[in-house]
Design a protein that fits this description.
The chain has helices spanning about 5-30, 55-60, 80-100, 105-135, 140-160, 170-195, 240-250, 280-290, 295-305, 305-315, 320-330, 340-355, 380-390, and strands at about 65, 75, 220, 230-235, 255-265, 365, 370. The protein is an alpha+beta fold. It folds into 2 domains: about 5-195, Up-down Bundle (de novo design (two linked rop proteins)); about 220-390, Glutaredoxin (3-Layer(aba) Sandwich), CATH 3.40.30.10. The strands form 2 sheets. A 5-stranded mixed sheet has the order 3-5-4-6-7. Strand 4 (about 230-235), helix 7 and strand 5 (about 255-265) form a beta-alpha-beta unit. Helix 1 runs antiparallel to helix 3 (about 80-100), helix 3 (about 80-100) runs antiparallel to helix 6 (about 170-195) and helix 10 (about 305-315) runs antiparallel to helix 11. It starts with a helix and ends in a 10-residue tail after the last helix.
Length: about 400
Amino acid sequence: MRPFTLLFLVAAVCGLFFAGFSTWDFVAHLDRDVHDVHCSFIPGLLASDTSASSGCHVTLMSPYSSVFRATVWGGVPISLPGLAVFAFLLFRGLDMMLNRREDDKRATTFLVLAAALPALTSLGMGYLSLVELGAACKLCIGIYISSFVALAAAIGIRAQGVGEDMVGFGREFGLSFAEGVGFVLIPVLLYAAVSPDYTRYVGSCGSLAKPEDANKVLLPIGQQASGKDAVEVFDPLCPACKGFEGRLTASGLESQLKRKALIFPLDNSCNWMVSNTLHPGACMMSEAVLCADKNADAVIAWAFEHQDEVRTAASTDVAAAQALVVAKFPELKSCIGSPAVKSRLNKSLRYAVANQLPVLTPQLYVQNEKLCDADTDLGLDYALTRLLAGQVGSKESK
């Protein structure tokens, strides 16, 4: 066996390995429960990651991890066609080796073209991970490296060939391309066909018992002046809320919602429903959002962007965290900490009590019907599309 052929086969197997574990992690969430994810260069041997802030978890829950999300719950994971492509590359590499076609320019040219597909896809996905998400997923990096090595090996195989005959390449390319499409299309269609139908859960997870906002505690957010009324319960220093906001924006469904925010800080310095402070500085940051009023979107966006910085500062000195906010929004200095905004925040918490809301963030209510907590991440597009369309399932579903 030639060295470049061996390298190509090893790269294809490694790609299968990493894409397989990534697909496994995604499929595990189809039961609508929370699961650990593999975040290691040696998945299966090292412990899975339980951190919701890990790069692998961030990329898995991102809008870029799957396609057809509005049709299939969670969508079809990008790693599944990736798995199929690596399987096809392994098949082509073995076929070329066993049939002694390593000198066949037609076979090796197609091999280079086939290997270029996952390499180009890796460039795009790597950009999205690092630039858009600011996260590095070890499984993804394993896939990227496998893709680039496979392409380099394929180029090496072709460069070492001695044959020059390209007659009939068009026909061979067409047949091989059709094989590759079959390798990808069949598992994708099977996945979509057997994916669970969770429509029955839509609208079955509760509702606002007393939606009337007599004390005017709900704060308009977003740019939509029309659409279906929605109440979003969130903590400005909650990482899950930041992730939810990104997924909602990416889904395109935000444009169908006329949103109002119910500020619910998970910080026991103001929220008596919380026994421990989960997000230091959340009370202060919530006051800042309420003080901003019509400029709340700008303060929320800044809070999401600087969550780690504010929480770290507030963990030792809330005044230092407040100074960060005031430096960016000096007009809020006299309002933050004032009796008026503290009273308004307290009334927001009373609204949560009156509606018997669970102590967690984020939550979304559309026309008073709750989007199930299990549908705020991978199932967002699927469930929210149906909730907006009025496809409400049985109230007795669990």
